[in-house]
Amino acid sequence: MRKTQKILILLAVAGIFTLYAGIHREQSKPEDVCFEVNRQNAADSATHARIHEILTDAFSRGRFNGHVIYAENGKILYNAPFGYANLRTKEPLTDTSIFQLASTSKPMTAVAILILHQAKKLDINKPVVSYLPDFPFQNITIKHLLQHRSGLPNYMHLSWDWRIPMTNADLTPLLKETRARLQFNPDSRFRYNNTNYAYLATIVEKVSGKPFQDYMQEAIFRPLGMRHTYVYVHAERHTYNPVRGYDFNRNRGFVERQADYLDGVMGDKGIFSTATDLFLFDQALHNNKLVSRELLDLAFTPAKPFDERHNRDYGLGFRLKLNDNNETVAFHHGWWRGFRTYYVHDFKNHRTLIWLNNRSDVRIAEFMAAILEQNDICDEDQPALGGGGS
């Protein structure tokens, strides 16, 4: 009897396994898998073709010279440089061409601060003077700097001998010597200001005990494999080989922009990178490799809640805007001395758009909107000082 029971049990188990295997084979038929893959490849090819048509049109109309990457769900669907790294020699742009990111450096500076906050080496809610005792204003917090709600004056507008290169170490003496006053009470309003992010770089140096450029390499660039990314240091400028930056003048044609006395101030600008390296940074944000999801959610939260009249703001290192679907999109753009850059981090839909230009005279919001199939997705503010930082 026991032997018969064992046989029946074995037959039942075998039957269940056979049934499961049949169902599994039915669900995973090779022709179904191939159909899904082919359908996805067709969709990817259509996206690539659509973007290529948009960019070819923009390039043919003289609207940009640079490198574009578009990705969905971590997969690059479009990656192509257009034009020249050097207009005089006709050296073509490549995947390793290095651009000045201008104010698109700010998200990286903010993430450096958030890494230190996460490690409990600083607290973004504490006053700046807790870390920089000589800072001339008592009631400004690190978070105020991150959100551009400090009220600080813009260092670019203060008196300085342009023959002398400026660095971050000059900021506090400059504010004191010019007797600069706050433009408004801290946290009472938003005003985009490069001084905020220059001071954030100084705080990184103070807290980490390392030069800003070294900390960025150790905490962000090297861990992510960003081999072509660095922070500009004026004393080392002759060792760099980025693409040349240009403006266009109707009378003079293309004009190559030269070094500027403000180039040595870092944090607000001054990070040089490739589109490919910037994509690695973007994916580290999507995958929470640098800071926690909780901190990123805070970074992507507007200082003032969105409503019907207020649909754009600034978080912690990112401009924020509601798209056509009423979803928050994080982005940043930059404009500095021959370079114009754009970075869209659509964290809700896991999309990425990177557009680096070595021409600062172009406006491409319409093309970006076409790529993302969203209206007015990326603001194009006028720069400070006629070609300055944005």
Please provide a brief summary of the model.
The chain has 390 residues and is an alpha+beta fold. It contains 10 helices and 14 strands.
What does this structure look like?
This protein has 390 residues and is of the alpha+beta class. It has a single domain, classed as DD-peptidase/beta-lactamase superfamily (Beta-lactamase). The chain is built from ten helices and 14 strands. The chain has a seven-stranded antiparallel β-sheet with strand order 2-1-14-13-12-11-10, with helices on both faces. Helix 3 runs parallel beside helix 6 and helix 3 packs across helix 7. It is globular.
What is the arithmetic mean of pLDDT?
A: 87
Instruction: Please give the count of helices.
Output: 10
- The CATH architecture is 3-Layer(aba) Sandwich
- Using the coordinates above, name the CATH class: Alpha Beta
User: How many structural domains can be distinguished in the coordinates?
Assistant: 1
Query: What percent strand?
Result: 15-25%
**What is the CATH superfamily label?**
DD-peptidase/beta-lactamase superfamily
End-to-end gap: 86 Å
Q: Which class do the helix and strand fractions yield?
A: alpha+beta
Largest beta-sheet details: 7 strands, antiparallel
Question: What is the CATH fold-level name?
Answer: Beta-lactamase
Number of strands: 14
| Radius of gyration, whole Å | 25 Å
Q: Which strand order do you get reading across the main beta sheet?
A: 2-1-14-13-12-11-10
Based on Cα principal axes, name the global outline. globular
Order of helix and strand elements from N to C terminus: HHEEEEEHHHHHEEEEHHEEEEEH
Q: Percent helix among the residues?
A: 25-40%
Low-pLDDT stretches = 6-38, 382-388
